[in-house]
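Quick one:
INPUT:
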């Protein structure tokens, strides 16, 4: 499937529609901020978790093996932005998205993009979600120590519930086959998107 800015916008619009109907109604608009891939990958390398994996020599070539192309940065959802009536932003590397999804079918790509945007919307409105779904947040918090890990599990739980998680899990495994194999060999503990039992438990509270 050809990945364009229109493709991305359509996916965000659909994710926003489902998110607004089922999770919370966002109190501000959301736009896509396109950034060049060099800036995107540089920011990805700076995250605590990715830095740990890079320093441990887990990635053989981070630039090629890192399959994510979407992110929410702290500056994308500040209180100042909200007070000024400006939109929150989801940052996208369009070039990386094209490379990652180039061999996928139209159906797979649409479902995966819906999952990605739903995940990032959850990050954008984490505070509101933690307040409204406090029981779900508390249960996840009791299992994980790192706030970053908790936030990832929270985002995955909502994405898991409202998108085609079976199709997306299959894509994750296919896109990251070498990484999953390496993770299992090195016994590194990360957020696995295919833990159906765990996600199903969390979904009881949303």
């Amino acid at each position: 499937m050809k990945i364009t800015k229109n493709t991305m916008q359509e996916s965000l619009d659909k994710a926003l529609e489902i998110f607004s109907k089922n999770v919370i109604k966002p109190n501000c608009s959301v736009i896509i901020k396109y950034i060049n891939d060099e800036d995107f990958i540089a920011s990805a390398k700076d995250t605590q978790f990715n830095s740990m994996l890079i320093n441990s020599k887990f990635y053989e070539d981070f630039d090629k093996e890192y399959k994510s192309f979407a992110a929410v940065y702290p500056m994308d959802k500040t209180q100042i932005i909200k007070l000024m009536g400006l939109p929150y932003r989801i940052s996208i590397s369009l070039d990386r998205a094209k490379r990652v999804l180039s061999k996928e079918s139209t159906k797979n790509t649409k479902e995966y993009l819906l999952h990605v945007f739903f995940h990032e919307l959850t990050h954008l409105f984490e505070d509101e979600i933690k307040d409204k779904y406090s029981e779900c947040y508390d249960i996840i918090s009791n299992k994980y120590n790192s706030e970053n890990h908790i936030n990832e599990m929270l985002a995955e739980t909502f994405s898991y519930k409202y998108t085609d998680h079976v199709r997306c899990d299959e894509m994750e495994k296919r896109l990251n086959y070498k990484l999953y194999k390496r993770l299992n060999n090195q016994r590194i503990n990360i957020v696995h998107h295919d833990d159906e039992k765990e996600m199903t438990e969390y979904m009881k509270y949303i």
